[in-house]
């Protein structure tokens, strides 16, 4: 028994000490997260507290979970990437029972040497203090005994619950229990099957204001965030460049997706900002096409590729549409250059003080005129060839929090598109053409910085890039049918 206890103690101590050596050194600093909490505190109403819960663990199937992804607001304010956690940010100083003053408190999952052998290292109470810089941090099991008179606050700000968190019966301090305990402490007026979303808010509970406060904070990026987004955008552009050089008729959509994502991983991007969209031909007309199943892309098709690398939580959002055979047909070129013209007209008005929606209005006017000129629609005809808006904020979410008016420090997209499905009410020569061009921009004092300009955009740039040799040209894998045949015969 003594040997086992010593082993567990060693594992527990080693895993915490080893974290810094095993992780990249370019994460946002603890000072960044502290400063963000201070900014939030400044914006809170008098005599209030803001409450944030970590994201739940999501089940994939049976006893397999999805790779965990922290709630972006929670990560923004703490840097903490583990589940089963709860954060309080108080407007004013609070006094603990022992006389200690504090204005924030973080409850985290405890160290557990045996669990860490299976599911990875945990910071725990002390690690969160040492590494993330919190002064008041406790194991989440302590929250049940946390005695604060919440009725004294004029406002308790939090995001309402979706009632979609699973309960782990073996853990009495998991997120399910933290939420239940919080509801009891603040006298959350819950009825069975009814939440504050449909029931009038009572007393001091506020489930609306926090979204606006966080949008104001997260919409304007700090210099540290901008550099992180630059890296994510550059990685995503490199994926597009390498695919332009590598793509050949006969490849599968999934193979093309794999080249993009290999490049992301090569540059140490941990994740995707959203499921990858790789749609050849008419599949590109499905705006969020993520099946990526088509086994053979043909030489006559365009392929629409909307993919974004996520680096340390920050996501890019880049779309390029290219001809599989390396050369746009006259019809493909006409549609492509119309979309490009719309994007460039929207870029001209991109600057502080301009409503974000105006980029969509600008693109729509250009595209509608162009579709009329090409004979695809009649003047003033309603259609679904351009069914979406073109601009949104990017950051910790691919559709990030931010305001409706462009401000210096915003990072946004401009992504017009035209999608003409098979059997559309126009000349057959246009069928199956889907084009979207999406770029990322930083709003500057007087205009914008085009973050994704290294990704070829014009017809000439794309066709020239597709003539370049690829590092994947000589890459091949054995034919599985032949391998299996040999295995069966023993040869």
Helix and strand topology:
Elements: H1 2-22, H2 30-43, E1 48-53, E2 59-61, E3 64-65, H3 72-78, E4 86-95, E5 101-108, H4 113-119, H5 124-132, E6 137-139, E7 155-157, H6 175-186, E8 205-206, H7 209-219, H8 223-246, H9 253-266, E9 271-272, E10 277-280, E11 302-307, E12 309-311, E13 314-315, E14 318-323, H10 330-348, H11 357-373, E15 411-414, E16 417-420, E17 433-436, E18 439-443, E19 448-450, H12 459-465, H13 480-489
Parallel strand pairs: 1-7, 5-6, 7-8
Antiparallel strand pairs: 1-4, 2-3, 4-5, 9-12, 10-11, 11-14, 12-13, 15-18, 16-17, 18-19
Helix pairs in contact: 1-4, 2-3, 8-9, 10-11
List keywords for this structure.
16% strand; alpha+beta; 35% helix; 491 residues; three-stranded antiparallel β-sheet; Creatine Amidinohydrolase; 13 helices; Creatine Amidinohydrolase, Chain A, domain 1; disordered N terminus
Structural class: alpha+beta
Q: Can you say what the CATH homologous superfamily of the largest domain is?
A: Creatinase/methionine aminopeptidase superfamily
State the helix count.
Answer: 13
> How much β-strand is present in the residues?
15-25%
DSSP, total strands: 19
Q: What is the 3D shape?
A: globular
Q: What's the CATH first level of the largest domain?
A: Alpha Beta
Helix content: 25-40%
Work out the radius of gyration: 26 Å
Low-confidence stretches: 1-18
**CATH architectural grouping of the largest domain:** Alpha-Beta Complex
- The rounded distance between the terminal residues' Cα atoms is 52 Å
Query: Which strand order do you get reading across the main beta sheet?
Result: 6-5-4-1-7-8
| Overall domain count | 2
For this structure, the CATH topology of the largest domain is Creatine Amidinohydrolase
